[in-house]
């Protein structure tokens, strides 16, 4: 398959992923509201796992002629960016969790600290969707697919002694 077609397919795939991240973000329940059971935005996570394979193969095809030295730079540098993004997201999660807890505790008849902790205890709560689906986590997702693609390319070049 030619690189132009692969580029278009990956662009379309990233467009779908942006849509999944957007829908997941807008499905966040505001802290003032009461939510029913379940988190339908988590269905998007299964689709994102499918796209990881698609993007890894696309990156590998697009980087077929890239020098191994550049691949090694990406292999070392991208995890640094991923760790920085993860640390930022941890801090943002803690700040938002405090915000939601304060709002819940200040509402009459809404429940106490136990209820506030139950709806903010993990990232998979419908109240915390905007911490799972946002611009930072999208770029972390793209970076992870790129890093895995680079790692597979490096393994492939080690397996081929002619390169």
Offer a quick outline of the entry.
The chain is an all-alpha fold. It is built from six helices and no strands.
Task: Characterize the structure shown.
There is one protein chain. The protein has 163 residues and is mainly alpha-helical. It has one domain (3-159). The protein is 73% helix and 0% strand. It is built from six helices and no strands. The chain has helices spanning 3-26, 43-62, 68-105, 113-120, 129-132, 135-159. The longest helix has 38 residues, at 68-105. The chain starts with a helix and ends with a helix.
The number of strands is: 0
SSE run: HHHHHH
Mind summarizing the main beta sheet?
none
Distance between the termini: 21 Å
What secondary-structure arrangement, pairings included, does this model have?
Elements: H1 3-26, H2 43-62, H3 68-105, H4 113-120, H5 129-132, H6 135-159
């Amino acid at each position: 398959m030619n690189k132009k077609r692969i580029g278009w397919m990956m662009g379309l795939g990233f467009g779908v992923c942006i849509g999944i991240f957007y829908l997941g973000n807008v499905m966040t329940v505001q802290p003032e509201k009461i939510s029913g059971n379940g988190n339908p935005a988590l269905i998007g996570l299964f689709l994102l796992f499918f796209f990881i394979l698609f993007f890894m193969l696309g990156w590998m095809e697009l980087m077929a002629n890239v020098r191994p030295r550049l691949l090694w730079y990406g292999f070392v540098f991208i995890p640094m960016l991923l760790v920085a993004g993860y640390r930022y997201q941890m801090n943002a999660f803690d700040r938002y969790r405090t915000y939601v807890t304060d709002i819940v505790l200040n509402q009459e008849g809404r429940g106490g600290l136990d209820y506030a902790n139950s709806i903010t205890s993990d990232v998979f709560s419908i109240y915390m969707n905007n911490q799972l689906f946002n611009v930072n986590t999208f770029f972390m997702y793209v970076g992870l697919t790129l890093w895995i693609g680079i790692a597979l390319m490096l393994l492939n070049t080690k397996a081929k002694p002619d390169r």
